[in-house]
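Backbone-to-sequence.
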């Protein structure tokens, strides 16, 4: 199953983890509250219980003020360096007092290992319902089970504003013809050929710096930087074997050159606000644009092809 929202993906994972931990932490918390005056008994209980809390790295007990009453209990022993540590100001303790008796913290960077982590906290209460301490359980995100729902990047149009310092001086600058600008009649057909006939699935033209960056279907983990002399030479196609246009491609092969031609128009439409770099990914169908005002845009290829020049320069006014 896939989910189309990053927040939704995180929410699902947190719900899964909360369901996995809350009951066990509640039951362990009751036992800890009964023996909170004995460090030895607490540490013995935590040692006994830790293997039942899947993926847990550390267990420990704090007093009502957040000061640690036990060592950090681990699967391979104990860490005494945390005994007496004041944890009340750590991010996982925020909001635990007066709101809930169990909390799964937001992810944070651990102080010692510098890894993304989270902590489950259970309030400990005596028989009169008074708060007498906390039970803490630390988890390393890299050791958690994988989420079943895979996050899918959205394909709606997104506009990202860039550096304000660049935007503020955009009308004090003027486009200068690059080497690539003067040879687009050679560059665009070659890029089109690489994508449609030679296995390039993601290509980016850097107009201002006269270079291109390409990613190949048969070697997607490495990108190639093509300098100006390479990207204007049709012989570059000989360096990459012929490859059928991939059946996973969302962008129709015949539309690739049309996307590049719109890049050309956006490059020359205005002397102050102009396209600095443009990319197309035929597999996810996304077009990326970066303009001289440092604004960036991402949208589906078909939506991009529908837009006219007036749309872009009206949009860039707010970038």
């Amino acid at each position: 199953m896939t989910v189309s929202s990053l927040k939704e993906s995180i929410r699902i994972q947190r719900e899964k983890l909360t369901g996995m931990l809350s009951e066990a932490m509640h039951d362990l918390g009751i036992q800890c509250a009964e023996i909170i005056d004995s460090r030895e008994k607490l540490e013995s209980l935590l040692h006994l219980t830790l293997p039942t809390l899947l993926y847990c790295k550390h267990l420990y007990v704090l007093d009502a003020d957040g000061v640690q009453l036990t060592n950090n209990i681990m699967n391979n022993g104990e860490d005494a360096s945390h005994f007496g540590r004041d944890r009340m100001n750590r991010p996982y303790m925020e909001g635990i007092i007066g709101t809930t008796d169990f909390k799964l913290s937001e992810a944070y960077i651990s102080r010692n290992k510098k890894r993304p982590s989270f902590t489950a906290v259970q309030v400990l209460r005596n028989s009169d319902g008074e708060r007498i301490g906390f039970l803490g359980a630390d988890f390393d995100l890299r050791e958690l089970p994988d989420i079943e729902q895979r996050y899918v990047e959205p394909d709606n149009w997104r506009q990202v504003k860039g550096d304000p310092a660049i935007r503020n001086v955009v009308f004090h600058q003027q486009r200068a013809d690059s080497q690539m600008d003067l040879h687009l009649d050679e560059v665009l057909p070659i890029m089109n050929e690489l994508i449609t006939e030679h296995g390039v699935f993601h290509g980016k033209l850097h107009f201002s710096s006269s270079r291109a960056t390409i990613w190949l279907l048969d070697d997607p983990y490495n990108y190639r930087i093509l300098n100006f002399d390479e990207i204007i030479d049709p012989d570059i196609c000989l360096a990459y074997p012929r490859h059928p246009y991939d059946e996973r491609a969302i962008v129709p092969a015949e539309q690739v050159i049309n996307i590049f031609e719109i890049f050309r128009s956006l490059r020359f439409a205005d002397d102050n606000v102009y396209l600095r770099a443009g990319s197309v990914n035929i597999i996810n169908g996304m077009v990326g644009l970066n303009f001289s005002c440092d604004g960036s845009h991402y949208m589906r290829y078909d939506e991009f092809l529908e837009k006219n020049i007036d749309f872009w320069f009206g949009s860039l006014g707010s970038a």
